[in-house]
Amino acid sequence: MSNLASLADRYASLKNEIDALTKELDAAKKEILELGVEEVVGNFCVVTIGLSERSSLDQKKVKALLTPAQITEASTTTLITTVRVKAKVPVAA
Fold first, then answer.
1. Dihedral, CA of residue 9, residue 13, residue 18 and residue 19, to nearest 10
2. Would the pLDDT of 17 be above 80?
């Protein structure tokens, strides 16, 4: 197996582990939130629950209020790297 194939397989394996752990973490978080308390004390840590507000800008409303030139002037473009994993389909012998 080449180094690149090994790297791809390692990446996919780690991603699968992280996805599984994320599901476990989300389930634990849900369970904690359902307790309705501000703090959960464990043997090794304290989990604190906080509530805050977040304001979001409604892009559709903003675009309706601004001209195309104003939208362009206020816009920025960034480069985003995406890494996807797709299982290989075995080739019949």
1. 100
2. yes
